[in-house]
Amino acid sequence: MNKDTFRSFFPILSKEIEGKKLIYFDSACTYLKNKVSFKWEKDYYMNFSCCSWDREPTYLWSLLYEKITNTRNKTLDFIWASKDDIIIFTSSATDSINRLIFSLDEAKIKTLVVSDLEHNSNYLPQKELSKLKNIKFKMFSYKDIINLDVLEKKLKNLKWDFLLSFTHSSNVIWWNFDIRKISDVVHKYGGYLLVDDTQYITYRKENAVMNEIDFLVFSSHKLWGPTGLWILYINNKVKELVKYSSKVWWWTIQKIKDDWIVMYKPLPDFLEWWVQNFMWILWFNEVLRFLIKTNMSNITNHVLSLTKYFLNKFYCLNLWKYLRVVSYEESSLVTLQWNNWFNVIDFLQYCNYFIPNYFVAFRTWTFCSDVFINKYLNWDKNLMRISFWIYNTRGEIDIFFNILLDYIKKIWKI
Questions:
Q1: Are the beta carbons of 89 and 229 closer than 8 angstroms?
Q2: Which residues contact 191 (CB under 8 A, 6 or more apart)?
Q3: CATH superfamily of the domain spanning 3-26+295-412
Q4: Are the C-beta atoms of 271 and 242 separated by less than 8 Å?
Q5: Staple 126 to which of 112, 167, 247, 314, CB 3.0 to 4.6 Å?
Q6: 3-state class (DSSP) for residue 64
Q7: Which fold would CATH assign to domain 48-293?
Q8: Are 133 and 106 in contact (CB under 8 A)?
Q9: How many whole angstroms separate alpha carbon 362 and alpha carbon 25?
Q10: Fold match between domain 3-26+295-412 and domain 48-293
Q11: DSSP state letters, 324-352
């Protein structure tokens, strides 16, 4: 399928809104939804809408449950995990990490370690758990984690029984890290590894087995799936670390004995304590079917070519006089930092309200990584992030730079 054909699946890219067309450079936040999505939603409500097994053990539910199980299996295939591993559907990244962190066996996990590069949704649950329970909390510099000699020295002092959380790709600098090498060091010193794959998996192939990942989280809405469905992966070898639920809902309980001892259901039901939106799971099933069928390297090559084209044009136009690049080339995004006498919100408003024919969507400010922004970029609010996916084109980048140059001329009266 060529890029023009693929773009046609996304109605918002071809329609005009108040006489303007959208240029969407914010896929690192969420992907656009394609028109086939509406077919999946309609198919669910017309053919599978029913209650869950515990309340309604019907033939219709058995058909739906088969499809849900199929989605779990496809998810394992997509991340190259073992068929015995566990997939849990949740409502957000924060939700996934909260469920995992607050269900860990305190006797087996004594220390929680995060990097200063993590998304707020990873940092906050672990910090809060350490306050509530007898678990230590430590923050390592991401530079110390990717320097394996330094990481070894730090982990030696933890004396086993720790969980290290690290992102596979940053949503600020978008540096892709060698998770396998980090995993080897973590396991060497008796620890466990939680990987935030939310940004990495959008344009690169993950391999949970090869990278020896214990826990993994990622989202469906950044794979042009439904918003509100996230995935928590648990390696079957470490499932005993998940001991109890931090919330008790009817879905998580198998039975309550006469002496009020609660017996929980096994995983994945144990951590799926909400009445799921089954339609989203079926929708994600179709997304996985497409992604598995599609050669992921085609997406990777296209996205990386756009990043390279953007950066080449940036330097050729001498825009480094006004902005600096704080991200890395081998990624699907470019993060730019404006100089001190400029307000990025002004430029965002200009791109959306003051130019004819187009409006441009991109991300500004901290990108939900407050610790990193505060520590390394001095809490600078003049950041903007341009991110790409398969539906973006070089022509859109050219239009963006024309808008940017026009704005600079107006502001600096060049």
A1: yes
A2: 113, 155, 158, 160, 161, 162, 163, 164
A3: Aspartate Aminotransferase, domain 1 (3.90.1150.10)
A4: yes
A5: 112
A6: helix
A7: Aspartate Aminotransferase; domain 2 (3.40.640)
A8: yes
A9: 5
A10: no
A11: EE-S-SSSSEEEEEE-TT--HHHHHHHHH
Point out which residues pair with 115 in neighbouring strands: 140
Sequence-distant (6+) residues with CB within 8 A of 142 are 115, 116, 117, 166, 170, 372
Type of residue numbered 174: W
**What are the extents of the domains in the chain?**
3-26+295-412, 48-293
pLDDT per residue over 118-140, tens digit each? 888 888 888 888 888 778 999 99
pLDDT in tens, 57-109: 678 888 888 888 999 999 999 999 999 999 999 887 778 888 888 888 888 89
Query: Which stretch of DSSP H or E encloses residue 398?
Result: helix 394-412
The continuous run of DSSP H or E covering 123 comes out as: helix 120-132
Give the span between the Cα atoms of 116 and 226, in whole angstroms. 29
Mean pLDDT of 398-410: 94
Structure tokens at 222: 């950044």
* Cβ-based neighbour number of residue 72 at 10 Å: 19
